[in-house]
What does this fold into?
Amino acid sequence: MQFFTSVEKLNINLLNARVRRLFAIIVERRVTLILNARSLRRLRRRVENFLL
It folds into this structure.
């Protein structure tokens, strides 16, 4: 019984790690997309100002 609970805990920990990693990847992608959009907007403004 004790062995079974330890195996269950191990499985839960592995699942949590996987979920956390997936969540981290999703958040990272969202953040990079937002940052890229902002930097692109800034760059576009700079280019427009430079051309004008």
About this structure: Helices lie at 2-51. The mean pLDDT is 88.
